[in-house]
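fyi for ur records
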Amino acid sequence: MSAPETLEGWFALHDFRRLDQAAWRAAPPETKEKALAEARDLLDAYARVDDAPEGRSVTYAVVGHKADLLLFHLRPEVGQLARLEQEFDRTLLGSMTTRPYSYLSVIEISRHNAPEGAAENIESSPYIQARLRPEIPEHSRYVCFYPMSKKRHLTDNWYTLPSEERARFMREHGRTGRKYAGKVTQIVTGSMGLDDWEWGVTLFADDPLQFKKLVYEMRFDEVSSRFGEFGPFYVGEKVDDLRRLFGE
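which gave:
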């Protein structure tokens, strides 16, 4: 049984940070001011992609206990992502954070997920090329990220299914997703050999309730109900001003 062919685009890093609250409270006001100004300048440089010929970067404030910040980066090379991590670590604010979670992956498209009629000419399709190097929608205020894998358990083993059956399941799954066109934008990244799960899913929306509705409905697709295994979910809101998060 042969593996389905995939195309890869930009590499992705979901870099989650948690502020050391005790260290932050103990810092004098001038240190906090310098830390926020330095971090703001660096995050602005990330957003402008000053470090690479192309890519995307957006910062989010994570809701809940799992983290405080998500630095989401897309770049052509893994080494570029490593340097972004290191640059933030060297800032005053970065030195007062820990990293509760991170996820390394690469934007991936499988031929059986291509639109009908595009599978034979997928490499030259403008639609496919735009998905491999995507925009992050400006209007989307919220992000939802989760890692996932496909089951390899006894009779419910995704990787032993015939290719035609896998393609049928994914077409059904895609039809559910298309109901949310204009409400939710999705970036799917592959992480086999790069991180602990098999895929990462990053959703963008202006209304976070759409994340719940989409994921709930997809639970009833057979590909999810039989074969889906899901990691932790992280939801964040776009950061406009770090002082709103960490200022006093």
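The mean pLDDT is 91. thats all i got for now
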